[in-house]
Write a structure and sequence with these properties.
With 176 residues, the chain is of the alpha+beta class. It contains 3 helices and 8 strands; from the N terminus they run E-H-E-E-E-E-E-E-E-H-H. Strands 1, 2, 3, 4, 5, 6, 7 and 8 form an 8-stranded mixed β-sheet that branches. Strand 4 (57-62) and strand 5 form a beta hairpin. Helix 2 (116-145) packs antiparallel against helix 3 (151-174). The longest helix has 30 residues, at 116-145. The chain is globular, with a radius of gyration of 16 Å. 28% of the residues are buried.
Length: 176
C-alpha cells in the first residue's frame, strides 16, 4: 500500500504496519537529499526499539506529521534523527513516536534494498551525519553568541560540511 506522507495520520500508519507488514510512503520535500528525493517511494516495516541502529532511516511522527529522517544517535530513552540535507538534528524522539524502519526505496522504476551491504553504508552515513549535526549545533550556539553578525560565514561552513557527504551518497547510490 502506498500513501503520501502529508495524507497520513500516524495512528493509521501504525495500524497499517501491523496489518500489512510493509507500507510504502511517497517522499515529499528535500530534507533527505540526495539519498531520498521528492517522489521516491520508501518501504517501511514495524521495528522494535532494540533493533534500531545508527544510520537507519525511520518514519516518525511529530505534531501529527510523518517524517522520514536518519537515526544519528540512540540512548535508552530517546533517539536523535537528522535529515541528510539538514545541518541541525531534529528534536529528540520518544519511543512512541517511531512508526517504522525503511527496508528499501524506489526511484524512477529502480528498487534499492536496504540490506546488509547498504546497512553498513547507512551506519557510516549515520555517524557522519551525527558529526555534522554537532557542527551545526556548535555553529548555532556561536550564531547566538555573536547575535547573528557572522550569519553568512557560519552557514557557508555548515553547508560546506554537507558537500562531501552529499557527493559520497550520490556515488554510493549510482554505483550499483
Amino acid at each position: 500500500m502506498t500513501l503520501t506522507n502529508y495524507a497520513i495520520v500516524p495512528e493509521t500508519l501504525r495500524t497499517l504496519l501491523v496489518e500489512e507488514k510493509t507500507v510504502g510512503l511517497i517522499v515529499k520535500g528535500t530534507s533527505m537529499l540526495p539519498y531520498l528525493k521528492d517522489g521516491d517511494r520508501v518501504w517501511f516495516q514495524k521495528v522494535e526499539w532494540d533493533r534500531l541502529r545508527v544510520g537507519d532511516l525511520l518514519a516518525f511522527e511529530q505534531n501529527q506529521v510523518v517524517f522520514t529522517h536518519r537515526l544519528i544517535k540512540k540512548s535508552p530513552q530517546a533517539l536523535l534523527t537528522k535529515g541528510d540535507n539538514n545541518l541541525f538534528p531534529d528534536t529528540p524522539l520518544a519511543p512512541h513516536q517511531i512508526l517504522g524502519k525503511a527496508i528499501g526505496f524506489e526511484r524512477m522504476g529502480k528498487t534499492y534494498s536496504l540490506d546488509r551491504k547498504r546497512g553498513f553504508i547507512n551506519t557510516f552515513l549515520g555517524y557522519s551525519h551525527a558529526g555534522i549535526g554537532m557542527v551545526g549545533t556548535i555553529l548555532l550556539k556561536f550564531f547566538k553568541l555573536t547575535k547573528g553578525k557572522l550569519r553568512r560565514p557560519m552557514l557557508w561552513v555548515g553547508r560546506g560540511c554537507l558537500i562531501p557527504l552529499k557527493i559520497l551518497e550520490r556515488i554510493i547510490l549510482y554505483a550499483e
